[in-house]
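Chapter summary example.
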Amino acid sequence: MPKTAAHSIAINESAKITPQSSFFTPLKAYYQLTKPGITGMVVMTATAGYFLGIPNTIEHFSDISMFLRFFLTISGSTLICAGSCVFNNVLEREYDRLMKRTAKRALPNGEISIAAALIFASLLSILGAIFLSFINIPTLLLAIAALVSYVVMYTPMKRRSELALLVGAIPGALPPLGGWTAATGHISLPGMFLFAILFFWQLPHFLSLSWMYKSDYTRGGYKMLAVFDGTGEKVAFQSLVYTILLVFSAAALFVVGTVGLIFAVGSLVLGCTLIISCRKFLMNASNTSARNVLLTSYVYLMGVMLLMLIDKT
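The structure predicted for these 313 residues follows.
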């Protein structure tokens, strides 16, 4: 074998093993198990719920004990969410191997063992529960309900029924309500509207995502609407209906006086933009129109959360 060829192979082999020997690779793998996109959403929505629940932001955080309360609320909620995501990864590891978008996750490729993942998930969940136990009982129970509904109900239901979509939206909608109860100590109407906003937001968001990756979900054996909808008409129609309900839920937050006119107008503009995207998806169900709904839903959520923070009454 020529020296140059051997040298080239050696370089290639070195390139293959270098990432595996990196000190940061295991840390990154554990981090990815927590599904950072979902946990990041929990941080944002729980923070919005907390801020809407406190009477005055400046006076509230001038007290170090109140700042600590906020820190424990957000940290506890995030840790429990992260733990539930790791449990979800463990339960779905065999099906993740079948799908292109998930085959390289740490559990399907053997980078992290099942035992290590279970210990990691348990530690995150227990630590999060300890943090929230210092806040109040309603907030702790809501976080536990989110974990149980996500891991015990939603995860196995995804392979059995299309109704898993609605069940899965429940744990995703509980963090802002948990932020509200952490600040107020009880569940009340504004907190329920926060729950409704996140509940209905997730439906067009995930419906569009499922249409984009319907071939993957088909290989994984998941029973969802996109898998059985050959034209995409049902997926797009439901996305439109849920978006309309989302707009009304946001308006209700203004009606009860939790937010001001800036929020009302801003959320309406954002909602109409998402409705237009869903209508285009309905008229032409394609990956491009579905992706437009997905991206617009991100803009909607970030915009509405920001409006809540700057225009609370």
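To summarize the output: Residues 64-91 form the longest helix (28 residues).
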